[in-house]
Amino acid sequence: MSIIKQGDPKSYCIYYDRIMCNVDKLYSTPTQEYTSPFPLADNVPYELMDWANTNIKPIESRPNRPMSIIAERPSRLGKTIWAWSLGPHNYLCGHLDLNNKVYSNDA
């Protein structure tokens, strides 16, 4: 950044937001894959485990059909941690954010 600032200060001032956006895209650190601190069967009701075993299949068995789960309950019940324990997913909380740090086509 200092090279651009010293070599072309006018462009640095005028295009600062574009330069920073490109720097963020090119040199961002890769996001780490989440690993759940809890085993999947930790304090999960039998009915919910039975439903998950029946309905949640690996991607190889459903190549053309993505799976969606909507969990609506009061807060602080462990819905997010349970969803994380199922594997990679996209978390939508009231709006769709297609930012590559939040949304993944591989989930």
H and E string: HHHHH
The end-to-end distance, rounded to whole angstroms, is: 35 Å
Strand content bin? under 5%
**Biggest pleated-sheet summary:** none
Number of strands: 0
Which stretches of 5+ consecutive residues score pLDDT under 50? Answer: none
Our count of helices gives 5
Roughly how many Å is the radius of gyration?
21 Å
**Class per helix and strand makeup:** mainly alpha
Backbone shape: elongated
Tally of structural domains? 2
Share of helix among residues?
25-40%
Domain Geminivirus AL1 replication-associated protein central: 2-82
GO molecular function, one term: structural molecule activity
Pfam families: Gemini_AL1_M (PF08283)
Protein name: Geminivirus AL1 replication-associated protein central domain-containing protein
Structure write-up:
The chain has 107 residues and is mainly alpha-helical. It has helices spanning 2-7, 9-14, 16-26, 46-55, 79-85. The chain folds into two domains: 1-30, no CATH class; 31-107, no CATH class. The chain is elongated.
